[in-house]
Design goal:
The structure is a single chain. The protein is an alpha/beta fold. Helix content is 40%, strand content 14%. It is built from 7 helices and 6 strands; from the N terminus they run E-H-H-H-H-E-H-E-H-E-H-E-E. It is globular. The two termini are 16 Å apart.
């Protein structure tokens, strides 16, 4: 029996994945690095910035340019996140499930997550210690750390927890944590993948 649902934040609770990706591409472009081939959005959505930039900045100039790219990325993020991303309203239906604990494991920052949850009046569904924010850590997805830590906090068996992710890196993270029930979210339906 499922006792808890762990939700990703960006792309599941709010529609922000495209904003993160746009900001990364702008940062590269501002530093004269243009991505020639079409980006596989399934691969790139949810990918942390370090992994993304390592993939697209040529190795021979990476160490020389990475600090400038990160600076440009922060400027793009600030500009692109001036407005709070839209809530994925379809996800609200999940909160109707009774006797379930709701948790978040996200690569985003705790302050941003709290701000958005308060704005959309859904913070009450998440107990304070049931949100793991991995921003500015070395444990970002696809590392399974966030899911493993949440399992310890919950003290449930992995078979009693369902995970809802939208990105490939999040799905890898949950799978590597050996979560039994993993669902890929899209606005139309939940698709079980494990």
């Amino acid at each position: 029996m499922i006792k808890a649902i762990i939700l990703d934040f960006d792309g599941v609770i709010i529609d922000s994945e495209k904003i993160w990706l746009k900001s990364k591409i702008e940062a590269l472009s501002k530093n004269n690095i243009h991505i020639q081939k079409k980006i596989n959005k399934n691969f790139c959505l949810g990918l942390n910035s370090n992994s993304f930039f390592k993939k697209f900045i040529p190795k021979k100039i990476y160490s020389k340019i990475i600090n400038k790219v990160i600076k440009s990325y922060k400027i793009s993020l600030k500009k692109n996140f001036l407005k709070t991303p839209k809530l994925n309203k379809e996800i609200l239906n999940i909160f109707d499930i009774k006797n379930i604990k709701f948790c978040i494991v996200s690569n985003n920052s705790r302050s941003f997550i709290d701000k958005v949850l308060k704005k959309y009046k859904i913070l009450r569904y998440f107990n304070h210690n049931k949100i793991i924010a991995l921003r500015n850590t070395k444990f970002q997805k696809p590392n399974p750390y966030g899911y493993l830590k949440m399992c310890k906090i919950l003290k449930y068996k992995r078979s009693e927890i369902a995970v809802v992710e939208d990105s490939l890196s999040g799905l890898i993270s949950a799978k590597d944590a050996k979560m039994k029930y993993i669902f890929r979210y899209n606005p139309l339906k939940f698709k079980k993948i494990a």
